C-alpha cells in the first residue's frame, strides 16, 4: 500500500514516491533531525507477521549499515513503525545501470570503469562478511557524476529464511520475489539455482554476468523459458565476447569467463583480485587522456610509443612515459646498467646519487658493484656471492653473503656488515633471508631458525613467525613499523603485504598476489610501494597505504621490481624479463625438447616410461592457484588437468597426485587423467608439500607440517583419511626406494626411514644433505643424486646405496648462462634414460626514475 506524502516514519517525513520493486517501495523523505533529504525503502508488510524474522531483519540491516565505501549505497538508519520495517539511505541522483543498458552496450572504457567500481564495492562488503546475493543491473546505480553505487546490499539475505538451503523453487521464490523471476534469474550463480549454500564467489558469478552485459549489450544467460535460462546457467557458456563485442580485449574476455566458471573453485576467489585484474586491463585499454584533435593525440602517442620501445630495447638515454592521468608529469627513466645480466638487489647510498647493486653476469655468482648515473662502467667492490640489503645514513652496509637454497624462492645466507668506504665484511648472523637498518643502528631480519621463518626486530626479538616464509623486510622511516612480504606457503612466491609493530601486532594490508618481488617505504611513511604479479602481468609497481588502499603506480610489458626510494622520491627499480623453462628428453630422443607452455612453466612429475610430464604453469593468464598440465615429451599439445600443484603420476597411469593451491593448510587431491571426478584424499590440519606414490599405488608418502611444528615425513593409505608420521620433526622428503619400503629423508644428514615405522632409520652413503634425489633406478640399489653447481647447472651423480660410490653421470643446464638460475627438481625415469628439468632465465636492467606518483 502506497504511503501518502506527509506521513512520518519515525523522524522521516515522506515527501514523494520514487519507485517500487520486489524488495519494497522507495520514497524521498525529509530527515527532520538533520534537515536533509534521504531515501526511505519500506519493506513489504508481511514481515510484521513474524517477530523473529523482524528482529533478524533489524540485526542484519544494522550490520549492512556498518559498511562504508564510496561504491556502496550508504545506509543511515533502520527502524519500524507499527510493525512496518523500513531502511533509510542516502538519496542519489542519476539512473540505474539497467536504464543505461536499454540502448545496448556501454562504451568499453565506461564498462571497465563501472565494473571496477562494482568490484571494489563487492570487495569492501565481502571483507566484512556481507554478501549481496542479488547483484544485477537494477541494483547498480550510476550517479550523474559517474559514480557507481551498489543498491540493496545484503537485503537479499534479509529476505531469505534462516536456512536458505533447499530446492530450486524455494531459492527462486525467495531471491527474486514473485512476478520477477527472469529479472533476477539470469544473474544467479549455479549454486544459487541448486539451493546450495553460497559465498562471495556467487556474487562474482553475478558480477561476471553484469559485466558481460555491459560489454556486449546482451544478457549472458537468457532463454525463451525459465527452464531454458536455468539450463544455460548450469551447463552453457555465453557466446564469446569477441563475437558479440569485437572491440573487447582478449584479457578482458578471459577475466569475464573466469568470473562465469560453473564451479566456484574455478572462479576468482575474491572481489579484490577481480578489481586488481580489471585495473590492469584498464591501463591497457585506457584511451589517450585529455586529447581532442587527431594532431594532439599524435603529439602524445608517438613519443610515448617511442619511449616504451626504448624501455623494451634497453636503449641508452633518458626515457619518458606519460601515464594515464593527463595532469601527471612525465616519468623519467634513466638506465644505469647495460650488460646482459641479472640484478638481484640495489640500494641508494647516503648521498642519494650513488647506487650499490648486486648482479650476476654471464655464468657467474652475484657480485657487488657501485655506480653513478655519470659512470661509464660500474666499479667492482670485490665482494662475491653478496647481496646488498640496506645502507645506514652513516654509510654502513648490511650484506647477505653465501646464500644457500632452501626452496624455489627461499635463499638464506650470512648477514654481515661492512663500511661503504672499504673494509672486509664482519659476519653477525646466519640463515638470513632479508634485512634492513632501523633507527639507532638496530637491525630487522627475516631468517630461518628452528625450522620456521621469523621476523625479528631488533635481532633476537621475535615479532612474527610463520609456517610459510617472510621476505623483503623494510623498517618504516619512524622505526615504528616493519613492512614485509608474507608468503603463506613455503617455497611459493605468492603472498601479501603486511606490517607489524614493536609489540608484534600484525596487519595484512593487501590481498594475496601471485608473486611479491620487492617493497620500499615512501619517505613520508604513509605508503608502501611494492612490486606484485597478478596472473596477467609479470610484475606491476603498486602503492598501498596503512588503511589498505591499493593503487597502481606503473605498469609496462615485462616486470618492474622496486628496490629503493630516495629521500626526494626518486625510485630505484629494475625492468625485468623472466622466463621459467621446462625441458625433457623422452624415449628415443637425442635432443632435449622445450615443453614450456607460457612463460613460467615448472616440471613437477615424470611418468615411469618417460612419455609424459606434469607441468605447473604460474605465468601470464594462469589461475591464482596455478594450473596443472600434462604434456607428452614428444612436444604435442598440453592438456590442462586442474588447479594447484601436480606432484606425481600414479603407477597405473590413471591418476595425478596433486596439492591444492595457496590455501593453508594445503590438501592432497587425486585428479583423473581420463574421465572421472577429482577427489580429496586428505582431511586433516596438516599442510602438505612434496608427495609421491609408492610402487603399489595404494599408499603415498609426503612432507607435512602441522601448525606450530616443523615438517616431517608421513605415509597415508588412499583408503584411509589418517596420515601416520614416519620421521621426527625437521625432516623433508618424498622419494621412496624401488621396493617401496623406505623413503629418503633430508635434514642435516640423509637417512632412509622405514615406511611401516618398524626399525630405525639408516644412513644413505654417498648422498649429501644439500643435494636432492633425482631418480631411483629399477635395479634397487642405485639412486641418482642432484647437485646444483653455482646456480647455473646441475650435476647428476650415480650413487650406489651399498658402498656410497659416486660417479658423475650427466651435467644438465643451458649453454647460454646469461641470467640463468637453476634449483633442484630434476626427474629421471627408473631406467635412467629419460629426464626432465627446469631452469629460470632473468635478464634485467637497473633504472632510476623521477616523476612517479
What is the annotated CATH architecture of the domain at 95-286?
Orthogonal Bundle
Number of helices: 13
Radius of gyration from the CA trace? 30 Å
Distance between the termini: 55 Å
Shape estimate: globular
What is the strand tally?
55
Summarize the biggest pleated sheet: 8 strands, antiparallel
Low-confidence residue ranges? 158-183, 286-328
**How would you classify the helix and strand content by structural class?**
alpha+beta
Brief characterization of the structure:
The protein is of the alpha+beta class. The chain is built from 13 helices and 55 strands.
Account of the protein in words:
With 853 residues, the protein is α+β, with helices and mostly antiparallel strands. Among the domains are: 1-91, Phosphorylase Kinase, domain 1 (2-Layer Sandwich); 95-286, Transferase(Phosphotransferase), domain 1 (Orthogonal Bundle). It is built from 13 helices and 55 strands. Strands 10, 11, 31, 32, 33, 53, 54 and 55 form an eight-stranded antiparallel beta sheet that branches. It has a seven-stranded antiparallel beta sheet with strand order 16-17-18-19-20-21-22, with no helix packed on it. Strands 1-2-3-4-6-5 form a six-stranded antiparallel beta sheet, covered by helices on one side. Strand 51 (793-800) and strand 52 form a beta hairpin. Helix 3 runs antiparallel to helix 12 (271-285) and helix 8 (200-216) runs antiparallel to helix 11 (250-259). The radius of gyration is 30 Å and the shape is globular. The model is unreliable at 158-183 and 286-328 (pLDDT under 50).
